[in-house]
């Protein structure tokens, strides 16, 4: 994937990993477009970074996604990289008497269906570019689930499998398919406490390592991993799945 001189769309780009990626890629001379649901955050980014364009969009709405994709193609015909980064994370206690599938359904709609709809809307455009990339954010929980986040972990496992098939189908096109698989990072994805959790990887350190991986092309099999990820990614292959699962999900 080119890390300079591109036009890059990042969904879920108003906070956390998405915003940090947008700023890092903008620093490297790319034209960056970020999406989000909150206009105030889009305005804040535009004020701080005049070179970053903000587009308000709820990509869980199919009709709005169609309008959004048409706007992107019209305003940014040179778009050649898409980061499908929008996602939500919610813990669930299935032992609670009042547990329902509402949170799980919301995560499936945003994390899975939203990513697939974005791909369907923009892959035809990317295939017409000489050198393009489609990048989706998953999680190391795709490989070893966190039991208190069952549906969230499962949505990321779905995306990991889906991206493998997408990569194979697009192997003879101009579109490189990459998977960004973060560990537990200091963002507010699961709530404000996560942003200062000492057990989480600092966001700036994560982004710096990701950019090094992208710039050096050190992502075998299309997986963008940081060193902190690897013990989780290889746990099943190395016969350590039960041990890793136990460490992440103590009794």
UniProtKB/TrEMBL annotation:
Please name the Pfam families in this protein's record.
Answer: adh_short
Every copy of the Ketoreductase domain together lies at 6-181
Keywords from the UniProt entry: Oxidoreductase
InterPro entries from the UniProt entry? KR_dom, NAD(P)-bd_dom_sf, Sc_DH/Rdtase_CS, SDR_fam
Tell me the PANTHER family matching this sequence.
DEHYDROGENASE/REDUCTASE SDR FAMILY MEMBER 7B, DEHYDROGENASE_REDUCTASE SDR FAMILY MEMBER 7B
The family assignment reads:
Belongs to the short-chain dehydrogenases/reductases (SDR) family.
The protein's name: SDR family NAD(P)-dependent oxidoreductase
Which species is listed as the source? Sphingomonas rustica
């Amino acid at each position: 994937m080119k890390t300079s001189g591109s036009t890059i769309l990042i969904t879920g780009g108003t906070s956390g990993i998405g915003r940090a990626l947008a700023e890092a890629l903008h620093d490297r001379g790319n034209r960056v477009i970020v999406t989000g649901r909150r206009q105030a955050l889009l305005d804040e980014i535009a004020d701080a970074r005049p070179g970053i364009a903000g587009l308000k969009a709820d990509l869980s709405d199919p009709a709005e996604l169609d309008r959004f994709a048409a706007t992107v193609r019209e305003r940014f015909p040179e778009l050649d990289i898409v980061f499908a980064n929008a996602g939500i994370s919610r813990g669930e206690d299935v032992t609670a008497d009042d547990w329902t599938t509402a949170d799980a359904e919301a995560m499936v709609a945003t994390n899975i269906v939203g990513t697939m709809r974005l791909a369907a809307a923009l892959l035809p455009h990317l295939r017409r570019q000489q050198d393009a990339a489609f990048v989706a954010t998953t999680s190391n929980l795709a490989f070893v689930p966190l039991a208190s986040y069952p549906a969230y972990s499962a949505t990321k496992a779905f995306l990991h499998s889906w991206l493998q098939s997408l990569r194979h189908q697009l192997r003879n096109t101009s579109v490189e398919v990459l998977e960004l698989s973060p560990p537990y990072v200091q963002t507010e994805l699961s709530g404000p406490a996560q942003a200062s959790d000492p057990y989480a990887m600092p966001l700036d350190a994560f982004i710096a390592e990701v950019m090094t991986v992208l710039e050096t092309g050190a992502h075998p099999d299309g997986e963008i991993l940081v060193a902190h990820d690897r013990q989780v990614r290889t746990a099943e292959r190395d016969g350590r799945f039960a041990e890793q699962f136990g460490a992440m999900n103590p009794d």
